[in-house]
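input
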Amino acid sequence: MNTRILRALALVFLLTASILIAITLLQSKLIFFPERLPADYAFALADHEEEHFFETADGERLNAIWSRAPGDGRATVLYFHGNAGSLRTWKDVASDFTRLGLDTFIIDYRGYGKSSGSLSEAGLYHDAQAAWDYLVGQGIVAADIVIYGRSIGTGVASELAANVGLARALILESPFTSLVALAKELNPFLLPGLLLRFRFDSATKLPKARMPILLVHGERDELISVSHSHKLHALLGERSTLAIIAAAGHNDVGAYPAYHAALASFLATQSPYFP
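output
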């Protein structure tokens, strides 16, 4: 093998190694797109909305907004949002639940909005547990909490559901079986099984969850294939309900009446809290 070929191979190797190292070091910036807010940022809150702060077991201070349903809320939705934005952009999703008579507690993960800290998978799990503990500490009964995760938040919600034992229900919107499986679909050549620090292995954790589970997915999801929900439904069997929203993509599931109908129908089975 001549010197020119060896040099070319060495260059390819170095470039590939550099790309893989960069992906390893920068992957949180490729997965998460948090909006940071100044500490004195004032949310435009309605009369039924309250801003809250609470602490995690590892010392971070997290921000949340608690939206109250008219009258006495029948249950409380603990909502884990997607990978971009902050409470500024997510808080209005609470209306999807308050119209059904559910209070809604939406948190900003560490590193998002006014929450302190930096991102890690273990840290996000601490955030979820701290939010749960805060609600229980505020007098919310565990059996009255509906855990809800959207997109990346489904990985957080699945971990919490597997650990808390009892909850009213678990709802996963646009879930994946694992982040590694999703990354392999998007780009198998980057060896996600070896390089990804964020695993979010929901398929392993969900069988441990003891509450009823609703899987909601856009039929035309361009980011997380609807096949992930089909696989989770097959894994969970009769313990789960699958709702595929026709024509919906990844970011517009909530714009379809079928989504709201699926929520109402599923929650109606969780008596005695829903008519």
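quick obs: The chain has two domains: 1-31, 35-268.
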